[in-house]
Amino acid sequence: MLLALRIPSPTRPARIRAPRPPHGTIPALLLLALLGCQPPAQPGDAGSAFRQAGGSFPAAWTFSADADPVTATEGMVATTDAYASRVGVDILAAGGNAVDAAVATGLALAVVNPEAGNLGGGGFMMVRLADGTVHAQDHREKAPIAATRDMYLDEDGNVTDRSTVGHLAAGVPGSVAGLWEAHRRFGVLPWAEVVQPAIDLANGFEVTVRLVSTLDAAQSGIRAVPASARVFLPGDAVPAVGDTFSQPDLAGVLTRLRDQGPDDFYRGETAALIVAEMERGGGIMTLEDLDRYATVWREPVSFDYRGYTIHSMPPPSSGGLTMAAIANIVERWDLGEMGWNSPETIHVMAESFRRAYADRNEYLADPDFVELPTDEFLSETYADARAATISLDRATPSSQVNPGIEAFLDESHTTHYSVVDGAGNAVAVTTSVNSWYGGKVVVDGAGFFLNNTMDDFAAKPGTPNQFGLVQGERNAVGPEKRMLSAMSPTIVEDPDGDLFLLTGTPGGSTIITTVLQSIMNVVDHGMNVVQAVHAPRVHHQHLPDLVFFEHQGLPAATVQALEAFGHTVRERDPGPPDAYFAGGMSGDVQMIMVMPDGSFTGWSDPRRGGRTEGR
Questions:
Q1: pTM for this structure?
Q2: What is the CATH classification number for the domain harbouring 467?
Q3: 532-584 tens-digit pLDDT
Q4: Looking at the domain assignment, is residue 343 inside a domain?
Q5: Is residue 573 part of a domain?
Q6: How far apart are the two ends of the chain, measured CA to CA in Å?
Q7: Active site residues
Q8: CA–CA separation, 419 and 127 (whole Å)
Q9: What pairing do the DSSP bridges indicate for beta strands 2-5 and 33-34?
């Protein structure tokens, strides 16, 4: 859901003014709202470069290219949930900055979006302050001290489900530490003020269609854990839309968080509840694990794409480096001239995806444990070499695309939200418990789900994980190691160095390609935020050797042309939703764009439900 803030204020600083690049207007869906009157239409609102050039979506595609974006002048919050978006906008209206709003929004999502928003998981945060400085915060989970390389293998050496279901699947949570640290460093409102809205929601909110649909899809796994079923299946049933859903245990945790800060979660009563849950279920997380957890501020990955500067997360997120590798390869071709989602454009993207993912899966891991070829991923030499192996006439089988950083060899459930304030501070956060409702384990007495992000390690290097990613030895399980992630919260600056775009999405292994496509839709194809979010997406991750596309997202003629190139093309199954593909759709993009006059346009993805509200 997307909310926008529009309140009287002094003139906006010129430094966040964006130029007038060719951006149009794209589909939007999962959007909450606008606070304030309708502002005057901005240049490009009624149409877009994409439309003016004759661009259109497939006739059978679900989402429109013609909806008007949400607009605002003093702040905007884009999330997957209306309650959380409203919390963020209320914090901005109360005088908070974008970091305050992001922290309050993240805590609200932990209440109303329990399948992904979380206290029991982790994630990554990108912050761009009004002075232009960019900061990358890693609050990814860590493996417990007692973790071992082969802990998820059976006696025959085969991978079990212990990395995805149950107590052993949980890494040490980082979300609470991450939100606290971001607020400590950059927030302006009192801590208690940004936590209180989440407590209010935990004391009762009206059940939404979204919550019902995800609980319904996950209820068999939740029912298998008594503490989980007690909280989320009251009366042994999924709550009904419109019911009041109260979470008193979670309200207690949040109240202690408000009053004691993270000490309670990592060393106090909540920590004791987590450890007791581990002991009941045969887990290995201890008080020492919780006490030793700390967030890390890392150097952002920053790279150029057609004059725009893209800032994203470094390892243990694979997002920034993999996007950089793809973008640097793709930049060798003029995608705008080739046409949006033409067979030739998709072919170039898929071949670039294939090569970058081959290197991502082999080389990237926790930089505190292994040396990483960061410079190679960012280098023009690497991009030239990889691009030179792409034929414009024929797909290269993945069996022939090996990891390609020879110089170095010689020696993803998740949610995303974007926030911007009137001063030009911007925050992009992607956070996760990995699968929907993580490992399905609720901490008894605390009321939140624990993650199952241990599956993001290579439980058995060379064997696919739940997202089909085949990863290498560098990302094997190890004590206190952070598992590799695809989460890619991203902030884009225009060619003048001013704030231009915030974007991000959930989606497991598809996160990287989805985020980059949302940027290319704007930069290469002249789309506006609605169109850039609504546009059908494609994906390739090296293995399996398939070009995936969303249900009804490509015309038959395009599929046939891709097959003629030698690609194996697969349409997403439109069946029941799972953790990442609902009704054949992928991703849940939350995008905000700064317009030429300094105002904001934004859009929330419709793929996971939602609506646009204004006042």
A1: 0.91
A2: 3.60.20.40
A3: 999 999 999 999 999 999 999 999 999 999 999 999 999 998 865 544 456 68
A4: no
A5: yes
A6: 14
A7: 414
A8: 10
A9: parallel
